[in-house]
Amino acid sequence: MNESPRPFGIFGDAYTNVNEPLAMASKYWHLLHLSYAETDAKFATADAQEMYPTFFRIVPGDQNLNNARGRFISRFHWKKVGTLKQSDDPKYALVS
């Protein structure tokens, strides 16, 4: 990080456990940190700008998506809704 030319920014990961420590450290080197898939609400709190000043995500947060889903359901007057969820956790796999 101390050599020239210095990097301008980095592309972060999709997972919070990778992005959070990286976002906390990148501010000390004034590195722009972009995440293509981070949606955790901790990056949108009131103190997030102070804790992660150089972190930016390029997708909406989960709360924004939930608001859109709710409006969609209300708009069509649906009474019952089902959801599907994907988990990459091996303990939920059918075959390992």
Distance between the termini: 40 Å
User: Structural class from helices and strands?
Assistant: alpha/beta
Shape annotation = elongated
Oligomer: single chain
GO molecular function: G protein-coupled GABA receptor activity
Main location: membrane
GO cellular component, one term: G protein-coupled receptor heterodimeric complex
Domain Receptor ligand binding region: 9-89
Give a brief rundown of this model.
Helix content is 30%, strand content 10%. The model has no long low-confidence stretch (mean pLDDT 84). It has helices spanning 16-26, 48-51, 62-75; strands at 9-11, 32-35, 55-57.
List the main descriptive attributes of the protein structure presented here.
single chain, alpha/beta, 96 residues
Task: Describe the fold and architecture.
It is found in: Membrane. Keywords: G-protein coupled receptor, Glycoprotein, Membrane, Receptor, Transducer, Transmembrane, Transmembrane helix. The chain is an alpha/beta fold. The protein has one domain. Helices cover 30% and strands 10% of the residues. It has three helices and three strands; from the N terminus they run E-H-E-H-E-H. It has helices spanning 16-26, 48-51, 62-75, and strands at residues 9-11, 32-35, 55-57. It has a three-stranded parallel beta sheet with strand order 1-2-3, covered by helices on one side. Strand 1 (9-11), helix 1 (16-26) and strand 2 form a beta-alpha-beta unit. It is elongated and about 60 Å long. The mean pLDDT is 84.
